[in-house]
Recover the amino acids of this structure.
């Protein structure tokens, strides 16, 4: 008994020390041993109260430790860190989890991802996601603070998964295969849940950070990012696309998110949501005949205001959305032409062509362009992504081509090709700027 209580107390102190170090901006020297210890601590979800119950004798000592730990944690919170920590019920596992999450979101390098997987940290994160999601989907009648806290925790864990799967085939495969793909079922359920809930909690104010609708939306966006990373193609193959695409409702949910859900989120978030959903759809169908068929056969999500409208095919709705965005994009053409033609201002000349990775560079230029041309340029991107999606669908398939044609203006692809050319030129421009720079 005594030994066990002592172990708990020691664990608590260790966890606290690590936690404090990780919260301080002082660089915590993280090495494999340290990580291993932390992951070990994650397993011990023992609360102080339990610790006190177990050992009758050294309760004064434990109480003293408890008070100290709480004071330390409160101090850290007063500096604005670890706001998620509940001071009333601190456990060893919680402190270790906080440490883990804050490390992965800050300074940990590439080696960390591998170690995290090998030492079972990813497993722990997946279990946490699973456990929180289970509670969320079991009890969601009204969103209590407790449930929203669970969702926020899921959000933070998913950010770690997003990071470690980024362009990393082995880590991606590990997650896809873990426990027979259990995490995929969890995430697909979460995806559908968020899709269904956002319309019930519409938010228009971008500065709103705490309402139910905002928390659900943010959880949805990070879920999408994890899906996109998990469906990334390596050598023209994507194991993830196969596994995720075949789960019932993924395509329908994505279509609903693309075509209906934007009505319930702030203006400033519509572009991000649209791009993420289209990126996922493209990943899903790219090399998956079965997923292409699912998309071809899908119905358009029903519009709330017209329940009795005829059943429209998803393709028809996608193409209507294409023309809608394309029309908006044309309005912006004048402003953006200057940038697309390569006219740059002095500020851009000096700052945008520094040595960066291609992705960073494109991201950077895209950011600048979007800023310059105003939000209208976003429509060009969204419409182009629909163009690419349709392109993958009809590639080497005359039957689908003629099906799509019936929804196109003038029954031809000229508008789509025109827009994709513009998009391509723009991408080529940014890429050639990079080539120029690297010489
Ligand atoms: C992952 O996290 C590291 C730091 O922890 C950061 O440098 C890196 O940019 C992140 N990568 C992605 C893809 O988010
Ligand atoms: C994975 O996620 C990161 C962070 O959001 C993103 O920058 C990256 O493009 C994603 N990777 C892939 C392969 O899509
Ligand atoms: C991927 O597919 C493209 C076009 O189908 C082909 O040109 C390329 O060689 C393939 N790459 C690999 C690694 O198989
Ligand atoms: C394609 O359709 C457009 C109408 O959107 C029409 O103006 C154009 O002439 C058509 N082109 C061809 C080659 O049929
Ligand atoms: C891409 O850009 C380069 C350099 O600006 C240009 O020489 C090339 O013709 C462009 N490629 C296409 C296909 O337009
Ligand atoms: C970022 C990264 O590549 N992380 C690891 C994922 O898994 C592979 C294979 O073990 C490692 O080489 C990576 O370092």
């Amino acid at each position: 008994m005594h030994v066990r209580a002592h172990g708990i107390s020691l664990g608590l102190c260790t966890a606290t020390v690590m936690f404090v170090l990780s919260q301080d901006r002082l660089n915590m020297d993280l090495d494999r041993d340290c990580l291993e210890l932390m992951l070990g601590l994650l397993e011990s979800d023992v609360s102080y109260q339990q610790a006190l119950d177990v050992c009758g004798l050294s309760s004064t000592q434990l109480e003293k430790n408890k008070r100290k730990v709480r004071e330390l944690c409160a101090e850290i919170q007063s500096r604005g860190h670890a706001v998620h920590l509940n001071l009333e019920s601190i456990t060893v596992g919680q402190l270790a989890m906080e440490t883990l999450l804050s490390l992965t979101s800050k300074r940990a390098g590439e080696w960390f991802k591998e170690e995290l997987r090998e030492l079972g940290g990813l497993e722990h994160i997946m279990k946490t996601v699973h456990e929180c999601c289970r509670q969320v989907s079991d009890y969601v009648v009204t969103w209590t603070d407790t449930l929203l806290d669970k969702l926020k925790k899921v959000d933070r864990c998913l950010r770690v998964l997003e990071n470690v799967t980024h362009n990393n085939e082995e880590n991606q495969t590990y997650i896809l295969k873990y426990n027979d793909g259990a995490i995929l079922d969890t995430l697909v359920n979460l995806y559908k849940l968020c899709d269904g809930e956002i319309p019930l909690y519409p938010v228009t104010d971008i500065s709103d950070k705490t309402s139910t609708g905002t928390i659900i939306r943010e959880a949805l966006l990070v879920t999408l990012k994890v899906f996109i990373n998990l469906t990334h193609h390596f050598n023209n193959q994507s194991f993830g696309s196969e596994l995720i695409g075949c789960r019932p409702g993924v395509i329908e949910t994505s279509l609903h998110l693309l075509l209906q859900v934007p009505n319930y989120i702030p203006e400033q978030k519509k572009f991000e949501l649209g791009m993420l959903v289209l990126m996922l759809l493209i990943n899903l169908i790219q090399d998956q005949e079965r997923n292409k068929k699912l998309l071809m056969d899908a119905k358009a999500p029903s519009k709330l205001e017209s329940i009795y409208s005829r059943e429209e095919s998803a393709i028809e709705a996608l193409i209507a959305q294409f023309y809608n965005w394309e029309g908006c994009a044309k309005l912006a053409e004048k402003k953006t032409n200057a940038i697309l033609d390569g006219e740059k201002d002095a500020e851009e000349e000096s700052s945008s062509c520094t040595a960066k990775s291609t992705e960073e560079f494109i991201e950077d230029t895209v950011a600048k362009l979007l800023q310059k041309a105003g939000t209208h340029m976003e429509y060009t991107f969204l419409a182009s992504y629909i163009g690419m999606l349709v392109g993958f669908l009809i590639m080497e398939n005359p039957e689908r081509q003629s099906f799509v044609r019936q929804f196109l203006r003038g029954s031809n692809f000229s508008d789509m090709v025109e827009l994709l050319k513009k998009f391509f030129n723009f991408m080529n421009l940014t890429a050639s700027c990079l080539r120029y720079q690297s010489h």
Observations:
- Residues 343 and 349 are 10 Å apart (CA to CA).
- The pocket of 2-acetamido-2-deoxy-beta-D-glucopyranose (ligand 6) is lined by residues 110, 113-114, 168, 170-171 (CB under 6 Å).
- The chain has three domains: 1-103, 109-306, 314-347+356-438.
